[in-house]
């Protein structure tokens, strides 16, 4: 079937809708990407134009189609223990950070957790680096805008390729190896139930979500390679909200392609992609 052509007017309608509902800013250069990523969805829905798809978005009161569209146009690339330098920093600093916390619980938020590799990496890291009595006081929150990807994260299933970079002892200790039931010797690896229980997964919109639901301060926020989809105004507003949730001395970890240069009054850079609340 011939792929439908996305017109400039249709693209402008779609990108305005995504910006107003998710804060994602699509540049002109993303026009072909949007067409390519959404063409299959048009066929699935039996639609003959992107204008019809836009109308379908407007009629979807539950917001499910918006989440589907965001999943389609964003790149959910993640892995276990990505951004190695950040984990090296935590290897040196985690125990002192936990010891100096101004409250009993040590709270970590994985904001934009995608399919779960980041929060599960955090949970494994805590188990490797902290004594059991400190682990018991660690709370991990993992949020994403997509309900579908959160369901995947909560199930905790990963392919052989997903786990191939992990030390063998991590795979043995933190995963159950299961046969897929397919042809050949295909296997999947599922996070151990006791590790999954360390993490609270919730759906949350970082741009339009109600931040007043966070009643306790955070010790660490991971928000990596999420703000690349936002314009400057949206990024600044989100960083200010993060600052309100972090007590002085707490940390914000972002992606290596991101920076907080415009927010120097709120954070100081410890090293590239690692910032501390002033």
Describe this structure in words.
This protein has two domains: 8-73, Chemotaxis receptor methyltransferase CheR, N-terminal domain (Chemotaxis Receptor Methyltransferase Cher, domain 1, Orthogonal Bundle), CATH 1.10.155; 84-161 and 195-277, 3-Layer(aba) Sandwich (Rossmann fold), CATH 3.40.50.150. Helix 12 (232-245) links the parallel strand 7 and strand 8. Helix content is 44%, strand content 20%. It contains twelve helices and ten strands. It is of the alpha/beta class and 278 residues long. The strands form two sheets. The protein has a seven-stranded mixed beta sheet. The mean pLDDT is 92.
Count of alpha and pi helical runs = 12
Proportion of β residues?
Answer: 15-25%
Average the pLDDT over all residues and give the rounded result. Answer: 92
Write the CATH architecture name of the largest domain. 3-Layer(aba) Sandwich
């Amino acid at each position: 079937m011939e792929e439908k052509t996305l017109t400039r007017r249709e693209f402008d309608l779609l990108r305005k809708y995504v910006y107003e509902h998710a804060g994602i800013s699509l540049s002109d250069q993303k026009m072909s990407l949007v067409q390519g990523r959404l063409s299959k969805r048009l066929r699935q829905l039996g639609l003959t134009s992107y204008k019809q798809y836009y109308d379908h978005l407007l009629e979807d009161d539950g917001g499910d189609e918006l989440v589907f569209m965001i999943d389609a146009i964003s790149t959910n690339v993640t892995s276990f223990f990505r951004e190695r330098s950040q984990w090296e920093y935590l290897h040196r600093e985690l125990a002192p950070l936990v010891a100096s916390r101004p409250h009993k619980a040590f709270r970590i938020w994985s904001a934009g957790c995608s399919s779960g590799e980041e929060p599960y990496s955090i949970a494994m890291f805590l188990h490797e680096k902290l004594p059991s009595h400190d682990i018991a006081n660690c709370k991990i929150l993992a949020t994403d805008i997509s309900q579908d990807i959160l369901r995947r994260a909560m199930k905790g299933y990963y392919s052989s390729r997903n786990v191939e970079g992990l030390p063998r002892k991590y795979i043995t200790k933190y995963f159950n190896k299961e046969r897929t039931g397919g042809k050949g010797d295909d296997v999947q690896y599922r996070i151990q139930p006791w590790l999954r229980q360390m993490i609270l997964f919730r759906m949350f919109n970082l741009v339009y979500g109600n931040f007043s639901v966070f009643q306790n301060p955070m010790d660490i926020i991971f928000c990596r390679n999420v703000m690349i989809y936002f314009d400057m105004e949206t990024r600044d507003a989100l960083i200010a909200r993060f600052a309100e949730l972090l007590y002085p001395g707490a940390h914000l970890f972002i992606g290596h392609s991101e920076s907080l240069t415009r927010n120097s009054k709120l954070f100081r850079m410890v090293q590239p992609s690692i910032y501390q609340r002033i």
